[in-house]
Write a structure and sequence with these properties.
278 residues, alpha/beta, eight-stranded mixed sheet, globular
Length: 278
């Protein structure tokens, strides 16, 4: 399907940001997941770091990241991420990862080490982590939260009915409970989640997900249009109009979310610092 006129993706181009990333050998979800906002973010000197390699153990049909047997975690990766963050001069950084079901802790220690490395390198910085569900392992979740991120993010991605097609190796209720448990363990850490539209969901289903997240005491919500990154990925069922996204944004604020970013090109880490600052 051709993108409608209200979706305009900026060219990625060549930016100093990419040169810094290459210099330190770090990956970004911006590139690996073929994010449509890559050009806009890189031109502003920001990026979302992808740790634990570029191979995922799950096969979500919406994602462009490769599904394959991963390599062992790189013990020097946290320091390289910290060095890149420092050179880019970031005051707010988002760190995410592929899902590593092959690791006993799901990669939780690598998240913690990365948080610590960044804080040791930069005195004043806010850190947001966007993690997998760790298969419900509370010890792994606690390992990440004990390191003291400012925001804990875990995306539900879509409505429960579509999980078997969109996220066949994930569980909706587990994702909701991951956000809920993070809030219970560390009430001072802000929680966040997001979902994509245009996969065939109904409005009532979207509102039900939003309600579930509020019941989990989720602070921040992002809602964006799914855009097919590769031909092998699931097709777009519908392009949602901007006014519908605005409707969800207003409804989310009525529900009690601290902030809601909702537009066709909204992604979970785009303008994350502005959302955190309120």
């Amino acid at each position: 399907m051709r993108h409608p006129e209200w979706i305009k993706v900026k060219s990625t181009g060549t930016h100093e940001t990419r040169k810094v990333l290459r210099r330190y050998g770090v990956s970004t979800v911006c590139e690996e997941a073929k994010c449509p906002n890559q050009g806009a973010c890189f031109s502003q000197g920001t990026a979302t770091f992808l740790i634990l390699g570029d191979r995922c153990t799950r096969n979500c049909s919406f994602c462009a990241v490769e599904t394959a047997d991963p390599l062992p975690p790189d013990p020097y990766e946290p320091e390289r991420v910290a060095d890149a963050v420092q050179e880019l001069g970031l005051k707010y950084v988002v760190v995410t990862s592929v899902t590593r079901d092959d690791l006993p802790d799901g990669g939780a220690v690598q998240f913690a080490n990365t948080i610590n490395a960044v804080r040791n390198k930069i005195n004043v910085i806010n850190i947001e982590v966007l993690t997998p569900d760790f298969k419900g392992d509370q010890e792994a979740l606690s390992t990440v939260l004990d390191a003291g991120p400012d925001v804990f993010n875990h995306n539900v991605e879509t409505v429960p009915r579509l999980y078997s097609v969109v996220r066949p190796m994930a569980d909706y209720r587990l994702s909701i409970n991951t956000v809920k448990r993070a809030r219970q363990l560390y009430p001072d850490i802000k929680t966040k989640s997001g979902l994509m539209l245009g996969l065939g969901e109904a409005e009532s289903e979207v509102l039900a997900v939003m309600n579930d997240l509020r019941e989990a005491d989720c602070d921040f919500l992002t809602i964006g249009q799914y855009l097919r990154p590769r031909r092998v990925n699931i097709a777009v069922a519908e392009y949602i109009k901007p006014e519908v996204f605005e409707k969800y944004r207003a409804r989310g604020l009525e529900m009690g979310f601290r902030a809601v970013a909702s537009s066709p090109l909204t992604r979970s880490s785009m303008n994350a610092s502005a959302m955190f600052a309120g």
